[in-house]
UniProtKB/TrEMBL annotation:
Species this chain originates from: Pelomonas aquatica
Record NCBIfam families: PRK02220.1 (NF002571), taut (TIGR00013)
Keyword Isomerase belongs to the record: yes
Gene3D superfamilies listed in its UniProt record: Macrophage Migration Inhibitory Factor
Class in the EC hierarchy, top level: isomerase
Ranges of residues in domain 4-oxalocrotonate tautomerase-like: 2-59
GO molecular function, one term: isomerase activity
EC number: 5.3.2.-
UniProtKB keywords: Isomerase
UniProt protein name: Tautomerase
Active-site residues (renumbered): P2
Length: 63
């Protein structure tokens, strides 16, 4: 059973997250031949103040 864990900075819409789940599922189905019913996708949203880029938080960078 393929399992994909995606980390993203918070702020995506429900529609965007649905699209990520759909496309990641499709990619795993095509790449490894797993039935889509067996694919699991887990999105973890990280607060901007907890995401660092080049030593600075995404929040401080205005992301």
């Amino acid at each position: 059973m393929p399992f994909a864990q995606i980390y993203m900075i918070e702020g995506r819409t429900t529609e965007q997250k649905r699209a990520v789940i759909e496309k990641v599922t499709q990619a795993l189905t095509e790449a490894v031949g797993a039935p889509k019913e067996n694919v699991r996708v887990w999105i973890t949203e990280v607060p901007k103040e907890n995401w660092g880029i080049a030593g600075v938080s995404a929040q401080d960078l205005g992301r």
